[in-house]
């Protein structure tokens, strides 16, 4: 699966707990995670509108750390494809264009209705909810997912989280199946 490419949509990068988990999974070697500067701009803009306690500088630092941590993560040059694409929300064409250009097999998104299977299937792309995406990664290599979760938990220092607190946090991110898969392995998290 290391050759498999997954494009992260802005909506899965918006919530910090999910973004952090997806970043740790991106470092697992199970797949290649990709995104664009426009995807970054979207999640950052939406987060700044909602969270006035955060600054643009803080989010830019997060963005820069993400880009530095995952080799070859930024997709560029996709803009010319956008005009040729039709989606229910035309503002999502850039996501599909980037997925096409980087040969992603998957768009990880909460907005499944905005990426209809009838449009994506002929392109060899599917859209998956992050819970389903993590479930599939777990099915391929449970140890790698458990290690990514353990690394995520270890990275949380202000404040730290117990295993139960982290799993509850994942539940708030709609990762119900993921939590069900991880609970039996709580001693290793």
Q: Could you walk me through the main structural features you see in this protein, from its secondary elements to its overall organization?
A:
This protein has 189 residues and is α/β, with parallel strands linked by helices. It has two domains: 5-135, 3-Layer(aba) Sandwich (Rossmann fold); 141-188. 54% of the residues lie in helices and 7% in strands. The chain has eleven helices and four strands. It has a four-stranded parallel beta sheet. Strand 3, helix 7 (117-120) and strand 4 (126-128) form a beta-alpha-beta unit. Helix 2 packs across helix 9 and helix 8 (130-140) runs parallel beside helix 11 (176-182). The longest helix has 14 residues, at 37-50. It starts with a strand and ends in a 7-residue tail after the last helix.
Short structural description:
The chain is α/β, with parallel strands linked by helices and 189 residues long.
Topology:
Layout: E1 5-8, H1 10-13, H2 16-26, E2 32-34, H3 37-50, H4 56-69, H5 79-82, H6 93-101, E3 106-108, H7 117-120, E4 126-128, H8 130-140, H9 142-155, H10 163-172, H11 176-182
Parallel strand pairs: 1-2, 1-3, 3-4
What are the defining features of this structure?
189 residues; alpha/beta; 2 domains; 11 helices; globular
Helix fraction by DSSP (H/I, runs of at least 4): 40-55%
Unreliable stretches covering 5 or more consecutive residues: none
User: What is the fold named in CATH at topology level of the largest domain?
Assistant: Rossmann fold
Shape: globular
- The SSE string, one letter per element, is EHHEHHHHEHEHHHH
CATH homologous superfamily caption of the largest domain = 5'-nuclease
Distance between the termini: 23 Å
Structural class, please?
alpha/beta
Number of strands: 4
Q: What fraction of residues sit in β-strands? A: 5-15%
CATH class of the largest domain: Alpha Beta
Which assembly state applies to the chains in this document? single chain
């Amino acid at each position: 699966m290391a050759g498999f490419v997954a494009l992260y949509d802005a909506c899965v990068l918006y919530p910090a707990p999910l973004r952090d988990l997806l970043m740790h999974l991106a470092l697992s070697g199970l797949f290649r995670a990709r995104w664009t500067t426009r995807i970054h701009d979207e999640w950052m803009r939406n987060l700044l509108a909602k969270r006035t306690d955060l600054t643009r500088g803080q989010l830019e630092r997060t963005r820069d750390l993400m880009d530095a941590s995952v080799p070859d993560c930024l997709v560029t040059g996709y803009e010319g494809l956008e005009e040729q694409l039709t989606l229910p929300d035309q503002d999502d064409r850039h996501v599909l264009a980037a997925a096409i250009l980087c040969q992603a097999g998957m768009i990880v998104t909460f907005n499944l209705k905005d990426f209809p299977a009838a449009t994506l299937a002929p392109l060899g792309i599917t859209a998956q909810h992050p819970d389903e995406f993590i479930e599939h990664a777990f099915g391929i290599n449970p140890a790698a997912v458990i290690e990514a979760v353990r690394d995520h938990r270890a990275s949380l220092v202000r404040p730290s989280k117990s295993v139960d607190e982290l799993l509850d946090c994942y539940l708030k991110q709609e990762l119900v199946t993921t939590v069900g898969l991880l609970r039996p392995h709580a001693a290793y998290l």
